[in-house]
């Protein structure tokens, strides 16, 4: 696995810093303008801060929570100068992520006690779902995990072909029946292959969108029921992939998919190409679902396990 070697901690942090650069520059250039000529955090500064948080796609509800917390600090401390605003914001955003992300992975781990660990991946077309699966497979494989992929997004020929290409590239088997075949049947055979080959991880790709939410819900429910014939507690994880560059659209997608199925974790991709990285904070706060992975670049290593401390540090890091 020389192609996909382990990525050391310093390089991961450099990649994260670079991936969040656009969000940071957008956020702090506006914040600097908001406090020019001001010595204290007053109502006018807070009004400006509201607009800045909204433009970073934190979302209205999360923005309100952050502003209320800062207002409490202003009321309690009586006098806050604008130089302290960065530190206060950093503290409050870190606190929100601490409250809403209970999962703190150190690496690409799978839980002990069951094998294979079955991950069902959901999300609309175009968010980087299949690419995320390929990168996950590469990351697990680099850690000596045996992986099986299931190409159950059978409504789109490109999805099946793309997953097969990833399988060849990463050297992991891909169970595929082709386009317009029964997705649940593919999922069943993928889990069967995982059990028989004693794989550590089975990752199942699913359709990005069906004609109605009811169809989507039924399809995902059917896949769950079928894989449970082999492993009653499967899938162990339902991972929703969202495109961070779409900002509030990602929020809408999260809302739709959490209604359609029991999403247990989130992967937020394409953060390197956007100034809307605040969406990570908003989605975490609104849905109370752990952000497990973030994508901050094109390379396999740029799919990272989400570390809230590193995320906040990169967002507020002074150049």
UniProtKB/TrEMBL annotation:
UniProt topology in membrane: Peripheral membrane protein
Keyword Cytoplasm: yes
Chief site of localization: membrane
Membership in a protein family: Belongs to the GTP-binding SRP family. FtsY subfamily.
Domain spans labelled SRP54-type proteins GTP-binding: 290-303
Localisation per UniProt entry: Cell membrane; Cytoplasm
Binding residue positions for GTP: 123-130, 205-209, 269-272
Gene3D superfamilies, per the entry: P-loop containing nucleotide triphosphate hydrolases, Signal recognition particle SRP54, nucleotide-binding domain
Catalytically driven reaction(s): GTP + H2O = GDP + phosphate + H(+)
Keyword Secreted annotated: no
One protein family per Pfam: SRP54
Signal sequence, start to end: none
CDD domains for the chain: FtsY
Subunit structure: Part of the signal recognition particle protein translocation system, which is composed of SRP and FtsY.
NCBIfam families: ftsY (TIGR00064)
Family matches, as InterPro entries: AAA+_ATPase, P-loop_NTPase, Signal_recog_particl_SRP54_hlx, SR_rcpt_FtsY, SRP/SRP_N, SRP54_GTPase_dom, SRP54_N_sf
EC number annotated for this UniProt entry: 3.6.5.4
Keywords for this protein: Cell membrane, Cytoplasm, GTP-binding, Hydrolase, Membrane, Nucleotide-binding, Receptor
Described purpose of this protein according to its UniProt entry: Involved in targeting and insertion of nascent membrane proteins into the cytoplasmic membrane. Acts as a receptor for the complex formed by the signal recognition particle (SRP) and the ribosome-nascent chain (RNC).
Protein name: Signal recognition particle receptor FtsY
């Amino acid at each position: 696995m020389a192609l996909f070697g382990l990525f050391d901690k310093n390089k991961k942090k450099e990649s994260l810093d670079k991936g969040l650069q656009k969000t940071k520059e957008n956020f702090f250039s506006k914040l600097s303008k908001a406090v020019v000529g001001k010595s204290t955090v007053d109502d006018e500064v807070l009004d400006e801060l509201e607009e800045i948080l909204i433009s970073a796609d934190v979302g209205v509800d999360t923005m309100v929570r952050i502003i209320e917390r800062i207002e409490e600090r202003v009321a309690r401390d009586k006098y806050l100068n604008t130089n302290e605003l960065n530190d206060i914001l950093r503290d409050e955003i870190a606190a929100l992520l601490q409250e809403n992300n209970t999962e703190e992975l150190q690496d690409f781990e799978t839980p002990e006690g069951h094998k294979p660990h079955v991950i069902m991946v959901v999300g609309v077309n175009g968010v980087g779902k299949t690419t995320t699966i390929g990168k996950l497979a590469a990351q697990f494989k680099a850690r000596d995990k045996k992986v099986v992929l299931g190409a159950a997004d059978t409504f789109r020929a490109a999805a099946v072909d793309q997953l097969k290409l990833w399988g060849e590239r990463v050297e992991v088997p891909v169970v595929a029946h082709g386009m317009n075949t029964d997705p649940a049947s593919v999922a069943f055979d993928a889990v069967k292959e995982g059990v028989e080959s004693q794989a550590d991880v089975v990752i199942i790709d699913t359709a990005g969108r069906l004609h109605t939410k009811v169809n989507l819900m039924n399809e995902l429910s059917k896949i769950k029921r079928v894989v449970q014939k082999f492993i009653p507690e499967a899938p162990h994880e339902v991972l929703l992939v969202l495109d961070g560059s779409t900002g509030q659209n990602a929020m809408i997608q999260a809302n739709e998919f959490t209604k359609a199925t029991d999403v247990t974790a989130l992967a937020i991709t394409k953060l390197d190409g956007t100034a809307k990285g605040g969406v990570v904070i908003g989605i975490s706060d609104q849905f109370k679902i752990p952000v497990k992975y973030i994508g901050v670049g094109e390379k396999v290593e740029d799919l990272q396990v989400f570390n809230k401390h590193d995320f906040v540090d990169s967002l507020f890091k002074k150049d």
